[in-house]
Design a protein that fits this description.
Length: 115
Amino acid sequence: MIQRFDVGARLSEMAIHNGTVYLAGQVPEDASLDIQGQTAQVLAAVDALLERAGTDKSRILMAQIFLPDLNDFAGMNAVWDAWVAAGNAPPRATVQAALARPGWRIEMVVTAALP
């Protein structure tokens, strides 16, 4: 059984299947913030969705991070490092990519396990 959340015409915000939680790409609410502010907003959105699914960041299986400007890598990592669950850093990829909106400095896709 597939469970979908916040289903729209184009995408669902989250899906759960066979004990795995799949999040849509998470982007910042406020594109005027610097990379640290935008990263904090994205991670807060990840936390909220994982909580809604009944899991948390310690159970992340994989994170994919997209940055239009690799000069933001260190600033993003500073926020990530403070946020990631100690002893449970997941596999992660960070790539440079053009994002759908010019003000967005980060987009993140996360997959996690249910308890």
